[in-house]
Structures are given as structure tokens and as C-alpha cells.
Amino acid sequence: MATGAPSDVFVPPPPTFQQAVSTDLGGPELLDLCKLASERPPIGDVGGFDRDGFPTDVHNPLGGPTVSSTFLPRSWDIILQRARALEDRRFRGELFKADEDGMTVLNFALCWNGPIALVELILSKCRTKAPKHTNEAGEHILQMRSAAGWLPLHLAAATCLDLNVIKVVIRHYPEALRDSCTAGTPIDLAKSMGTDRSNNAEIIELLENCRACFENQDPVGLLQHCAIEDLLSLTKKFDWPACIKRVRWSLMNPAIRFMDEILKTDASGWTPLAHAIKWQGPSDLITLILHKCESDIDKKRLLSMKDNMGHQALHLAAAHYDDIVIIRSFIVDYPIALQVTSDDGRTPLDLAKGTNSQRAIHAEIVSLVDCCTSAKDEYEVKKLCGAIDPTYAHLRDSLQAAVTCRDCDKIDESIALLEAIRLGDDPLVGEAKVLAEELRPQQAFKKLQRQVSEKNRALNDLTDKLDATVCVVCMVNQRSTVIMECAHLVCCPTCANKLTSCPICRGKISRKINTKG
What we know:
single chain, mainly alpha, 3-stranded antiparallel sheet, 53% helix, elongated, metal-binding, zinc, zinc-finger, ubiquitin-protein transferase activity, Ankyrin_rpt
């Protein structure tokens, strides 16, 4: 091609998904981000699995690449974060926007295996059919049809891989169960999938049961079929992967107050956390549950809950759980539990000692719980559990020494250093501040004493200097006469004329020399 031809003019390529999501909130809207992400080329072979473990042979009713190979989970995470960051007014404004195919953000989430957290977040903004939650035509978002006449439930029934997402859509708009688009009802669309989905039979059964309840005007039965299993029921089934997935969804969804699920108890008074501890659930699940607690108060509330036998989380962990890291985290987060007794009067240490000694880390657990139970304060407990920064520990020891010797200057210095790295949240820092205030008058008095001593020292130095230049006889006039032969310069001329011997050495005066001439 000839140089300088019009076709050689550089045309910047369209933005990639990563470039789009890196802009501020004034950049592309949610729908634009969904379209950018859906234009990714497939990364798996047809009939196989992509690199994220999703099947690539799921048919896309709208054409284009296969459903599960277009969106990657991390793309949905980014879109969900952007959705959460938007203000409510702008978020609702973007929900009802559709592209040329009539696809909304919700439709993209249903077609391309979006997370349930995003679906629930969208529907939480459209909880009612009030005008402010509808589009210009007065339609609820679940009533909006695509260009082919499909409702969101049709799309979900035909393409969605997550049974819980379909339950959420049915629960919010069950009328769509009997709606027929160009390809049939949601049940017809699910049946047309055949064996393309591993859980297709479950989805068909759900749709049929929900439609029967809707036609029989049985709202209770409908809600029962559409109920998403909460964390407690999943832990009772020992379905640990589903438990982890449920908690992760909640971490990304501000529309759910997940603390209600975390604090829920069964007939034995056991929380999901207690079940995970008792039945050796994965440490990742326990860490996620504690991370989901909205504040330190909620975390302590969870760790302080007792079952019907008076056991707290630390009691159960000391008796049953084999992960020393988790036990340390319980102790650090709620050290009071070390002294709490169950209904039969046993502490966590008693339970640790009383369990099977064949546990791989039995001796280590007993040693840890024993040392922490005997610790003199909460700081020592955290130090034993390795939860104290070594630098902080060194500075705290210095502060402890300063408090012991009641040195106000060193206390102030240590507090300043501690607050710089830990914001002064250690109880000792508060005690040191109180002590420093009490020692403040003593510190001022000592400072005044030092000032007086320094002035006295200066005055004495000045007096010594003056004494070294005044006549030793009259103590008034300046020394200016040298007595010979001893060469002492100790007298003024007037006094020297009256002397016959040196006032210092008593030597005989042979002559006198006036230094001032």
C-alpha cells in the first residue's frame, strides 16, 4: 500500500473492557460495560470447558458466541463493583436502558451467567411497581421484553446456569411463568435445552412446580419452591462449596443484610459458624464468615453466642477443630471466651484437654489455650497468638518500663511512637496517657528545678571569673601588680605598696611591677 494513502491514516481502536472499567464513574454506563465484556472472543473449544470451568456448549438464543465463554467471572466482579459505586438515582436510571436487541443490564446478567449478587442488587432497586421504579412505559424491569419479545424469565429459563438466580426472578415476578413469547413459555424454553445443562432437569421441575402453585393461587407454596437455601441449611448439609459461594455473594451485595443469616440458630442453638467448626468445615469458610461481620461488635456477638449446652465458638473449636490458625483468631477476636464456662462448668481449656489425644495437633492446641488462659492481660494473649507487630511489642515494652519508673518524658515519647503505628488502641496507651497527665505537675516542678540549677551554676561560674580578677586584699580593685620574686598577680597597686610579703606564698617582696604601666 502506498505511503500517504488515506487508508494509512491511523484510526484509534475501540476501548477494551479493561480500558473502559478503568475510567471514572463518568465513563461508560453499566450497559456499555456489559456489551464490551460480551464481545470478548471465546476462549474455550466448542463442546468443552473454558479456563474458568464453565461449559462452552450452552446455546445462546440471541446468537453470537457461546453463553458461558463470553463473560469471565472477574468481568462480572468489576461490573458489580461499578454498580455498587453508583448513586441510587443514577443506578435506577441505567437499569431500564436497553440496546438495539432490547437487552438490559439484567438481561445480560441472566443470559451470560451473571452473579446472583448483581441480580439481587438490580431487583432491590426495583422492589415495587411504583412509578419511580418503572420505565417510561410504566413497566417493571421484569416486564420489559427484548426485541424478540422475551421477558427476563424466558432468558433465564433458556440460558441461566444458576438455579438460585431463576428462583430470585420467579419470586419477584411469578406472572411471567405463564407468559408465552415467540419460542414458548419459560418451561418450553427450559425443555428445549435438553441435556445442554447439567441441572436442566432441576430447572424444569422448579418452573413446573412454581407454575402449578401460581395457577392454584398458592403463594405460600410458590415462596417455598423459590426460597434460596440460607447459610445455616447449607452448613447442616455439609455442602461447604455452596456455603463459601453463598458468603461470597453476600460480600458483593449490599442489598442483603447477611448478619441475619450468620446469627441464625437451629433447634440446638448452633449457628452456621458452629456447624462449620463442629464438622471440620474449611478454614476459608470460617474466615469469610468472620470477615462478613459488619463490625467488631457483630463479630464479638457471633463469637459469644452459646448453644443449648452453653458452648461458645472457642469451646467448640478447642474440642473439635484441627486448625490452630482458626483457634488463634477466635482467641484474638474474643479472648473473654477463655474464662467462660459451659453449662457443665468446663472452660475451653478443659474441653481441649478432655478431647481425643489422637488429634494431630492436640498437644499444640492444649498448650496454646493453656498459655492464653494463664496470660495476665489481653495484650499478652495477643502476643502469644502472634497477633502483635514486633515493632509495636518493642515500643509497648518501652512504654511499660516508662510507666513503671513514672518517667513522664519517656511516656510521652513512647505514646507518640505507639500512636504513629497503632493509633493508640492498646489499653496500656490509655492508662499511660492518664498517668502522664497526673505526672504533669511533677514534670513542671522538675523542669523548674532544672532551670534554677542551671542559673545557679551560671552565676557561680560568673562569680569565679570575677574572683579571679579582683585584688585579694581589698576585694575591690582589679589586680594589676606583679610581686617579685614569686611573680604572683594578686594585688592592686594601692595594696601592694603597703605589703612587705606576698599574701599568697608569704615570700619576701624584692620589687613590684605594675602591669598597667
